[in-house]
Amino acid sequence: MGQVVTTTNFDYKYDDEPHASRRKEMLAKYPQIKELFGPDPYMKYLVPLIVTFQLVTAYYIQHLPGPAIFFLSWALAGTFNHNLSLAMHEISHNLAFGHGSPMMNRLIGFVANIPLCVPSSITFKKYHLDHHRYQGDNKLDVDIPSHLEGFLFYNSFTKLIWVILQPLFYSFRPLFMHPKPVETLEIANTLWTIFFNYLIYNYIGGWAMAYLAGGTLLGLGLHPMAGHFISEHYTFTRGQETYSYYGPLNLLAWNVGYHNEHHDFPYISWSRLPRVREIAPEYYDMPHYTSWSGVIYKYITDRRSGPTAGLNGAYRGPVETKRRWSNQGSSVPAAITTLTSCHVTRIKHVLFVSPG
Questions:
Q1: Residues 6 or more apart from 34 whose CB is under 8 A from it?
Q2: How far is Cα 243 from Cα 232, in angstroms, rounded to an integer?
Q3: End-to-end Cα, the chain, rounded Å
Q4: Closest of 219, 249, 257 to residue 84, by C-alpha
Q5: What is residue 76's DSSP assignment?
Q6: At what angle do helices 102-113 and 184-199 cross, to 10 degrees?
Q7: Whole-model pTM?
């Protein structure tokens, strides 16, 4: 069954979300960073090209043997469907057309959603902005796995299952942890996706539909691109909440690996994020990753890592009482402490990957 995770608890960190203060300090020191703000001028053309590539590829793979379709669904459709899901991430910040054209951003998000076969563009935006605003909040930031996930996926074998099924947990976790009212655009996104699924199935073929839908499931699960889900906020240095990845897959991932840079400046488009590190290198002289595949391997095999032992889990918001638990004999007392205006961050304490 593999190594058993050594903890299913969280540690607590008592301070504010780090990126707002970093942003203020960096802009005071390097005001030229403001010149990088704004949308990418080419994204609105690149997204339809990638969508077209996916649909054309789906048409031509239909006559291949089943094992070949499965492999290509993982290797090719998985890679580019993951690319499009990360395009929707950029689009959720209005970085395709800019903040002055919100509806155009929503429409290009609909286009990016077509090959994924699952309506997600609008819902992702609704929850992702909370992830930035309340990073680590154990209710509002639904990127954090639930305690139930930590209880169920506790050794190498079950963690492998968790990684494979990660797109399902990522999709359904918000509905249980922090349900929100359905928006009109979500209904439109759903109807749009159903309509295009119908067209793909009836006019391209059932194998094409399976190829694309399988690409979404496989590409967001046990796939090198999916390493960013773990690398972004799973801690390997105590006290550091966000981690960047500097490696070749950024070319296919809209530079999402520049994740500290992105959280510091979410209104800088993917193509300009590397410039932030060039301008202010001392702010990014911190542990980071160079391999997403290595992150996944370490996560599965290291007994100190798990759904509740790697990611920043946090509660950030004014509270009256909160139990502070210390799992490593730190100076934080295991007692109920009255808090009036502080912000509490629940940090998963595991140190499981050495800096790359």
A1: 27
A2: 5
A3: 28
A4: 219
A5: I
A6: 30
A7: 0.84
Q: Which residue type, as a one-letter code, is found at position 70?
A: F
Residues 6+ apart with CB under 8 A from 72: 57, 61, 64, 211
- pLDDT tens track, the chain, 356 positions: 556 655 555 555 555 678 989 999 999 999 999 999 999 999 999 999 999 999 999 999 999 999 999 999 999 999 999 999 999 999 999 999 999 999 999 999 999 999 999 999 999 999 998 888 888 777 788 888 888 888 888 899 999 999 999 999 988 898 888 899 999 999 999 999 999 999 999 999 999 999 999 999 999 999 999 999 999 987 766 778 899 999 999 999 999 999 999 999 999 999 999 999 999 999 999 999 999 999 999 999 987 777 765 444 444 433 322 222 223 333 322 322 222 223 333 333 333 333 44
For strands 345-347 and 335-338, give the pairing. unpaired
Q: Which amino acid is at 223?
A: H
Beta strands in 50-180, from DSSP E residues, in sequence order: none
Single-letter code of the amino acid located at 186 = E
Number of separate helices (H) and strands (E) present in the chain:
15, 4
Q: How many other C-beta atoms are found inside a 10 Å radius of the C-beta of residue 184?
A: 8
CB atoms < 10 A from the CB of 204, how many?
Answer: 18
d(CA 189, CA 167): 18
Please give the Cα distance from 33 to 19 (Å, whole number).
15
The answer to whether 266 and 249 have CB atoms below 8 angstroms apart is: no
CA separation for the pair 145, 174 (Å, rounded): 10
Rounded CA separation 125/131 (Å):
10
- Tell me the torsion sign for CA atoms 198, 200, 203, 208: negative
Q: Can you give the length of the chain in residues? A: 356
* 277-280 own/partner pairs: CB under 8 Å, 24+ apart: 279/30, 279/32, 279/33, 280/26, 280/29, 280/30, 280/33
Q: Is 72 helix (H, G, I), strand (E, B) or coil?
A: helix
